[in-house]
Design a protein that fits this description.
Blueprint lengths: L24 H14 L7 E7 L5 E7 L2 E3 L2 E7 L3 H8 L2 E8 L4 E11 L2 H10 L2 H9 L8 H14 L10 E15 L7 E8 L2 E6 L3
Antiparallel strand pairs: 1-2, 1-5, 3-4, 4-7, 5-6, 6-7, 7-8, 8-9
Length: 210
Amino acid sequence: MADLSDFRKVYDKGFLVENDLPNSPFDLFENWFKAAAESGTYEANAMTLATATATGHPRARVVLLKSYDENGFVFFTNYESAKGRALAENPQVCLAFFWEEQERQVIIEGVAEKTSREVTHAYFQSRPRESQLGAWASPQSSEATREELIQKLEQLNEKYPDEIPTPNHWGGYLVKPTKIEFWQGRPSRLHDRIVFENENGSWKRYRVAP
């Protein structure tokens, strides 16, 4: 067994003081996201999406956040993929961001629901042509060879020489948060953890121990 006990780092780049924080978790998220993006973080919008099936089988993967506001956090995927099938069975999800340069994490618990077809279509048409074709060509999470995928891509490229229609099996999810935790690394492993929890439409804020 590999011994990783010496993998250690001192966290000392920031701190969280309740009285200095905005009342809205979305305002704090925006401040942190902008800081990560402006620092040159590689794909600051990358987030871990954790799902579970109706029987409780968990799965996590990294996806890209494509928009956010006070309604929630949006990502896009194939509705027939493993994550799409899990979300159809159990819409409870968890999102996690980790921004190493700032020694920060954001953990979001919530419920995922499909975006409107108008939102999905607008985003799909904004994607590069290659990404649009890929959404059609890939039977995501199903068994397929590389050769089959390339052949399908070539066929679709010929089939759609101009505008590519938005697939019905592909679209967005809006994660409506019920709890958002902001984690700031601190020395002695006494990390700052501030939780915003939605109670009947209002956000309650409190600190939890690291």
